[in-house]
Structures are given as C-alpha cells and as structure tokens.
Amino acid sequence: MPRVNPEILRWARETAGLSPDEAARKLGMSGETAIDRLAALEKGVRDPTRAMLANMAEKYHRPLLTFYLPKPPLKSDKGQDFRTLPEAPPPGANVLLDALLRDVQARQGLVRAALEEAEDDEPLAFVGSANITDGVDAVVASMRTILGVSLEKFRQQRTADDAFKLLRGGAEGAGVFVLLMGNLGSHHTDIDARVFRGFALADSVAPFVVVNEKDSRTAWSFTLLHELVHLWLGQTGVSGYDGEGEIEKFCDTAAARYLLDLRELSELRVESPANLDELKNQIDEFAWRRNLSRKMIAYNLLRSGLIPAATYRQLSDLLDAERSTIRSNVGEGGANYYVVRRHRVGPALVDVVRRMMAGGTLSTTEAGRVLGVKPTKVTRLLETDRAV
To answer: What angle do CA 172, 155, 336 make, to 5 degrees?
Structure first.
C-alpha cells in the first residue's frame, strides 16, 4: 500500500470543518499531546496506522481510498445551490451535506458507466427539454405525460406513502433514479430538512433525484416533483424550503400546480387576522384529504395572497416544530434491514444493479457502493422481497 500523503490528512480534516483540537477529540486521541500527535501525522513526521486511517475516514466522512490519493482532489461540483436559508445552519450541517452529495454523485457515476458499458444508455429526451420561458403549464403538462400520474390517481391513493410510491414509480419508469437519503448511514449524521430538502442530478443517461427522508412523509411527493422540474430544466443542484430565487419559485409553482388546483384554496376560511390554531386545523384536514404536505398548502396560501408573510412564518415554524416532534418519536423499530435499504434506494436502482451484475458490468464491490451497503450484503438485498 502506498504511503499516505500528509497533505491529504490536513485537507480531509479542514474540509470536514474540524479544528485540530476538535479532530483529536473525535478521533479519540486523548492527553495533552493529542494535538501534537495529530500535527505530526499531518506534517508527515509519523505515518498513520490502517486503524487510524479507517477512523479518520469515518470521522471526516471520506472514503478510505481518498487518503491514498497523490494530492487533494478538486472541490466537487455539486451544481447550483438553490437554497435560501433563513438562518445559519447548525454547525457541521453543510459539511455533512457536501459528503452526502459526493456520495450520490459517486453512485450516479458508477451507474452511468455501467449503463454505457452495457450499451443501455439511450438518452432521455425530457432532461433539459424545458425552459422557464415555456411557462409553468407547459412544463406540468409535459411531466404529466412522461410520468403518467394524473391528479385523480394521486389522490385516490390510500395514504401519503402510497401516493409517493405511485409518483416515484412514474419517475423511475421514465428513467429517473429516486433515492430517499437524509444522512450518511447513521442517525448521528442526520441532516434537517431545513438545511436541504432535495437534490437533482441532471443527466440524460442516469438522472438522480434525492429526497430528504428526514422531512415529513407527506412532503416527499412535492419535493420529488420539485426536483423533477429541475431535471426538466436540465439543472443539477440542491434545494431547500422557501427559495427566493426565480428558478426555485418556478419549481415550487410547477410542483404545486401538478398536485393542486389553486382554486381549491377557497375551501379554507382564512380570517384576517388569522386564528393560527384554527387555520392549522383547516390545513391539516385539507392536506390529509389530498395526500399533500401541510407546509406546501401554507406556502400556496402565501403565494396566492390569502395570508401575509408573518402568518406564513408562524405557520411554518409551528409545522416544523410538530414535524420534528413526530420524527423524534417514530423510529424504524423492528423493520427488516434489507427492506428498509431497498425502500431508500428505490426499486429502479435495485433492478439496474441486478442487471448490471448479471451482465458483468458491475462488480459486487461497486454494487455495494451504489446501494450503500457492504459488498457482503448485496446478494441478500437483491433477493429481498420487492414489496416495501
């Protein structure tokens, strides 16, 4: 194994947003000389052990092989940052987000290469087919045609989960890989939906969409549609809530138009000034009957001029707090590990991995990387019942 470039060790720590003191504590390097020992590693005075490198890979959120590169890699291009963050994100949140986006891009690269090698890479015409100047109605009409999911069929679904499954199936049937990801594989690395809602990776062969699973389940469908609009516009980037940019407003409007006729908002009896509890109760019932996100309804009330910005902000904070409470009290319990993993990566990614492995264009190690599991778990995951 080649000698580790000490410059890589310093770069990995700094890009993880850690000071020498913070890194030493995370790495379990105790004692008064801990920082000095870390400095010696970063200066090349001492060589790290394999166990220390594995520890650094985990704490710095980097693949182990990164430490054997001849020099630090160039900054990853995660596309455009469409987010409008209302306040400073929690410490380290953007570091975790960058690591998650690198992970997704690595998976997408492997899938694209395998599809090209298997000559199963016919370009998808809808990626980059639209422009904002086409207008919301034209983009929504195109999406309805390609996805094959009508508003009526969406609302006929028994639960919000079923509605998302239907919409995800339409997207995956069109050639988009849809992943549910909200951390780096551990709840210790959870990324709040207020930091990132979704991510689109526009590619004509293997487009990916990531939906933050830490958001409310009723919000997943809206986020998926929002990110699909980015694909139609040919844009790679990360999205948040309440985006103020022209592009984000367009994507929000198109996603809402797909799921809601704005004339329906007249059913909500909005007082002036609004009784917040009464309005929230109305939104709860209105959204539940349509398999929609309550926050989406509140946002469209704002956009339609039915509530002022101050009322929207109060509603948004109330719904965020309620969502956080619900999620903290709901775990995966005894859910089968492989069923959960399949649900997160989606049936389309599982199917393409199975086909590419059978055809010899993906190794077991690469398959594990794409699916986010150890190579030893790949076969079991592929064999797990598809019903999730």
So the answer is: 55
